Amino acid sequence: MIRGYKFLLRPTARQAAALGEMLRDHCSLYNGALQERRDAYRHVSKTTVRYGDQSAQLKEIRRFDPDRQGRWSFSSQQVTLRRLDKAFAAFFHRLKAGQTPGYPRFKGVGHFDTVTFPKDGDGCRWDAISHDRATRVRLQGVGHVRVHQHRPVRGRVKTVPVKREGHRWYVVLSCDEVPVEQLPPTGAIIGVDMGVAHFLTTSDGEHIANPRFHQTMADELAQAQRHLATFPKRTGQRTKRHRAAARKVAKLYAKIRRQRTDFHHKTARALVAEYDVIAHEQLNTADLTKSPAPKADPDAPGKFLPNGAAAKAGLNRSVLDAGWAQFLGILANKAESAGRLTIPVDARNTSRTCPECGHIAKENRLTQAKFQCTACRFTANADHVGATNVLNRAGLALCDVA
């Protein structure tokens, strides 16, 4: 089994400066490679430059600029070039599929936040036990950086990305051959209905409240964003006050993200510990949060009819604030590591189907919270009905497999 471990780094001031230089130099390498591809295609009779061509130039680049490019890991620089190659591969894939292509863009220093070492021992070394009994990770050009290891690492360390989030630095270990820590069986099966009024409702009738982290901090975040907006967007040199305002906004978003992730982990862990099989709706958050298409007014060319965009925008914010996709991913990972089973089922009409008689109608759901079947008059909480239908569909799926 493959598992990732994310730990906070505690670099010294000198090491933090070296980490920042490492990101800037890798960003410069990425942008230079992108510029080479653009120039070759535009000016050299549409010549295509590939990863192999640019990787072969690394030795010469390192020899030409030993103070910047030559001090970092050769393998990590190859990963940066592969990152650009993947961006171009995705661009051509979208182009062939008829989608909006999105040509690869240059990266600003503030938007290039990760350097990946592809192998433990090649430019980096994960030292679980060092001479001073503190966990450290050795990075070429930076040194032995102290790690706040809050849980043991199991399996074999493969890749070692180093990531910056605001003013914090993290190391993310990707490990394989991680043993399954199977929990004792409980014999229980549950259906889960994701929602906005409640974060989730189980088929047992339990409601877990939606914490709404973004909405809770909306006023403070809006004030920080208004302050940031007072500075001009296009200036040759960012001022100290502008950088402080931008850090304030980033800090608030980081806090919301950490709160949401912590809530998802704790909720998923509670479900995995109590149930052997967990059924949930198969949701596509990207499609659910799309803006409604504009409606042209046939009687007035160039004008549009109301399409409910404002109301849909509010719903989209609530769905994204709940973070359904992240939670379901965390739930699947925890279930796999504990030897549990998760079953995604078709989400269509789960809240409009009567669990008693099977009648499907839009009118069955009277309000956000109330369900009343128009055929048999069965009445219940709408979210509970959705979770029950999810459980029933998972039972049918288990019967088909058996």
Specify the helix fraction band.
Answer: 40-55%
> So how many helices?
11
Proportion of strand residues: 15-25%
Number of spatially distinct domains: 2
- Principal-axis shape equals globular
How many strand segments? 16
Q: Give the ordered list of helices and strands.
A: EHHHHEEEEEEEEEHHHEHEEHHEEEH
N-end to C-end Cα span: 25 Å
Low-confidence stretches: none
Report on the structure:
- The protein has helices spanning about 15-45, 50-55, 60-65, 75-95, 215, 220-230, 240-275, 285-290, 310-320, 325-340, 380-400, and strands at about 5-10, 115, 125, 135-140, 145-150, 155-165, 170-175, 190-195, 200, 205-210, 275-280, 295, 305, 340-345, 370, 380.
- It has about 400 residues and is α+β, with helices and mostly antiparallel strands.
- Strands 2-6-7-1-5-4-3 form a seven-stranded antiparallel β-sheet. A five-stranded mixed β-sheet has the order 10-9-8-11-14.
- α1 crosses α4 and α7 (about 240-275) crosses α10 (about 325-340).
- The longest helix has about 35 residues, at about 240-275.
- It is globular.
- The mean pLDDT is about 90.
Short recap of the structure:
The chain has 402 residues and is an alpha+beta fold. 43% of the residues lie in helices and 20% in strands. It is globular.
Which labels suit this protein?
16 strands; alpha+beta; 2 domains; 5-stranded mixed sheet; 402 residues; single chain; 11 helices; 7-stranded antiparallel sheet
